[in-house]
């Protein structure tokens, strides 16, 4: 199951109801469901517009209250924009920004400081693999080891072109 079997706190519904009244779509509250998802790993939340559902990442549910409110408002604004303007409006367009301003939040698409949220139990680092030719030292990086790759120059010279594959670095730049 995509969502944690937890009841969302009543204060979340209160915030959502307040924003929807402010934005002139109070009837949307009856259709909108909010769940906590343990499957969201890189996104803070997701608004599934066709299902009228907001999914909050489990690690955000444990984040500071101010961040949680902003994320919840962000996703609720997506649902309200769809209700007010239809399906062809831009997700983070002017209409969405107006709703965020009206609710008292800056209309961020991404967090200004990505380290605001620490994911407990999950590593934000992504391992990169180095593929290096032992003859000419040409190398390339990939997100996974690819043992089929060969060095084109060495293959042209009649050699096997086989590359040495090893863990190289993480996305954050530290050696592993």
Instruction: Summarize the main sheet.
Output: 3 strands, mixed
Mean pLDDT score, rounded? 82
CATH architect. name of the largest domain = 2-Layer Sandwich
Domain module tally = 2
Shape: elongated
Indicate the radius of gyration in whole angstroms.
23 Å
Order of secondary-structure elements: HEEEHHHEEHE
CATH topology of the largest domain: Zincin-like
Strand line-up of the largest beta sheet? 1-3-2
Low-confidence stretches: 1-5, 119-123, 171-176
Number of strands: 6
Strand content: 15-25%
CATH class of the largest domain: Alpha Beta
What is the number of helical segments per DSSP (H or I, 4+ residues)? Answer: 5
By CATH, the superfamily of the largest domain comes out as Metalloproteases ("zincins"), catalytic domain
Helix content: 25-40%
Structural class: alpha+beta
Instruction: Give the termini distance in whole angstroms.
Output: 34 Å
Give a short synopsis of this structure.
The protein starts with 9 loop residues before the first helix and ends in a 6-residue tail after the last strand. It folds into 2 domains: 10-116, Zincin-like (2-Layer Sandwich); 127-170.
Notes on the structure:
With 176 residues, this protein is α+β, with helices and mostly antiparallel strands. The protein folds into two domains: 10-116, Metalloproteases ("zincins"), catalytic domain (Zincin-like, 2-Layer Sandwich); 127-170. Helices cover 30% and strands 18% of the residues. It is built from five helices and six strands; from the N terminus they run αβββαααββαβ. It has helices spanning 10-22, 58-61, 65-85, 94-102, 152-156, and strands at residues 33-37, 45-48, 53-57, 127-132, 139-142, 164-170. Strands 1-3-2 form a three-stranded mixed β-sheet. α1 packs across α3 and α3 (65-85) crosses α4. The longest helix has 21 residues, at 65-85. The chain starts with 9 loop residues before the first helix and ends in a 6-residue tail after the last strand. Residues 1-5, 119-123 and 171-176 have low confidence and may be disordered.
